[in-house]
Amino acid sequence: MFFKGSRYAKVLEHQFTDASGRSIVYKRVRFTPRTEARRGHRVNQGERLDHLAHRYYRDAERFWRICDANDALWPDDLTAVPGALVGIPAAED
């Protein structure tokens, strides 16, 4: 259902059967794991989180690792202010 490397790939699935007998499979809640930043990055004008993920991980879709390390609910908030310091965690735990 999710691509390999997705933040939801390891989240357990659950199944619900509705009144008509239809089975609905869904992911349980993903709790944000404690993710330590190992370095910092000063945001430049026009940078986006996918740019940072590509620079540090060579994979733009791993932007969520940076979100987790910075407790960010809205990814764009991390790069909204040029000069802000964003924590960069390791690519894997």
Give an account of the 3D structure.
The protein is of the alpha+beta class. The protein has one domain (13-89). It contains 3 helices and 4 strands, in the order βββαααβ. It has helices spanning 49-57, 63-69, 75-78; strands at residues 13-17, 23-27, 37-42, 85-89. The chain has a two-stranded antiparallel ribbon with strand order 1-2. The protein has a two-stranded antiparallel ribbon with strand order 3-4. A hairpin with a 5-residue loop joins β1 and β2. α1 crosses α2 (63-69). The longest helix is centred in the middle third of the chain and has 9 residues, at 49-57. It is elongated, with a radius of gyration of 16 Å. The protein starts with 12 loop residues before the first strand and ends with a strand. The mean pLDDT is 88.
Q: In brief, what are we looking at here?
A:
The protein is of the alpha+beta class. Helix content is 22%, strand content 23%.
How many extended strands? 4
Helix content: 10-25%
- What overall form do the CA principal axes indicate? elongated
Q: Runs with pLDDT <50, length 5+?
A: none
Largest sheet: 2 strands, antiparallel
**Structural class category:** alpha+beta
Spatial separation of the terminal alpha carbons: 22 Å
Mean pLDDT reading: 88
H/E element sequence: EEEHHHE
- Radius of gyration, CA atoms, in whole angstroms: 16 Å
Residue share in β-strands: 15-25%
Strand order of the largest sheet: 1-2
Count of helices? 3
Q: What is the total domain count?
A: 1
